[in-house]
What we know:
Arc Repressor Mutant, subunit A; alpha/beta; 219 residues; six-stranded parallel sheet; 2 domains; 6 strands; Rossmann fold; 10 helices; 53% helix
Amino acid sequence: MSKIKLMLVDDHEIVRAGLRMLLQTQDDIEIVAEVDNGRAAIARAKDLAPNVVLMDISLPDIDGFEATRQIKRALPNTAILALTMHESDEYFFKMMQAGASGYVPKKAAPTDLISAIRAVNDGGVFLYPSVAKALVRDFMGRAAQGDDRASLGGLTDREQEVLRWIADGSTNQEIADKLTISVKTVERHRANIMGKLNLHSRTELVKYAIRKGLIEVEG
């Protein structure tokens, strides 16, 4: 099994040291670089093409939002996972819009962080409970204004089922196993879903599924 190549981005040495101690205990994760600022993160990411970048938002030069945007522009297959002390809706939505696949507060349990790394590495979206609440509030607000109250965009029953599993954080392989179909079929369903609903990212798929009540958010 190939290891998850991970880069740490945080300007506090003590934070990086703690993360290093935690992640080095995981057989499937390899830390390939540690940097303490946004510009170095962009440069090192381009050199190393890590699978996952664990990104702080508050950095001394350019912030995590801009670093995420530039890394995703250069390396669309690299997953960005925000690990930050900020839990406000504004920071969360800005980070997801920049291209992050997950958002984990620094108060989270170590097991949550490890699960998040594995989830985004496999192409999923990781939603910490307090963050998921922000999605619900956002879409309930839109609902109150009468936005997008109608149908499920002509999705078939199977497409709705695939969407539910995507929003629940399952990888393409896990969805294929659960539904006893091939990964290529899952990918085709995903493409059809995004085309029918005019959505452009995994985050939008998750938000749509929550909005439509296809999944329930706990916490």
